[in-house]
Task: structure prediction
Amino acid sequence: MTATAYDGPLSVIGQRPPMIGPAQPTGAVPAILEYNPDLSPILLHGGNGVRDPRYMPRIGQGPQTAGGIPNQDCGWYDTGVGGIALIDAVPQALGAANIVANAPATSATLVLTTTTTAAITVIGSGGYSLPCPVGANVPARALALDGVSDYVGGGQSGAFQFFDPTTSLARAVSVTAAAGATATSALITGMDVYGVLMHEQIPITAGSTVNGKKAFKYIISAVLNAADAGHNYSVGTTDIFGLPMRLASFPSGYATIYYPAPTQVTAGTGYTAGVTTPATALTGDVRGTYALQAASNGTNRLQVFSGLSVAQAIAANLATYTTNLLGVAQF
Result:
């Protein structure tokens, strides 16, 4: 099936207009081509998806065959039953010192772990590139929490890319300081699940652990406001998980969370909506977070599905639509 011209932010992957994928199906039966200027949503083989408005489609720029132009379009897969698949993964057990080991802060710049584990992946030389939507490259020696994020391609050429919910876990981090510690804050620099740069300044309480509010997928650095060689500090992961898309509300018919799956979460406890004011180093997550009500253990599965409310889907312009789906710009 061929693609028509891009028709704005409400375009849907797998529906017309526009369509993506090979001009003919992989089987022997020819595709049915339909050109209807008043076309409404339809049931369609292969499922549907919502286009990522940050990515400019490259439909028609090359053959959609093996070795053709990959990543011509990207977005999120809609299951057609549960909603858009945002998270379907097993969080590893949290650790208070798995990002930065507990040690004296002889320098304000804390030393990130160099050991890959089930919970932490050290990005190798050359970095890690995400295929879309923004062409991000995660730098070498950065840390990925619960594995790297990725996309799943479709068609012979990978002509479209769906965000992979099995790799979408992002977590808030914690800072632990020994009793008597004199540093008062830690600036965490990293990226979200889409490879967008972000920062958070987490206040420090001596003799305690303080959880951050923003969900990081990648950690690039952790820097105290001042060195403190006389006291230990550590940085670790929490059980506060980021949402890859803003939820219209929760709990509601627009969003479903399961933890431990298949147990459905029916109470709003642990859910924090995304901030709506301009993001700073001190504000919360731009898309919102969910704090597990039973600790992660490397076995329990977290699943998040979402639909779009009318208010999210109907927007006066592309910028507003993008904010409706993905929150205000990261800081």
About this structure: The chain has two helices and 21 strands.
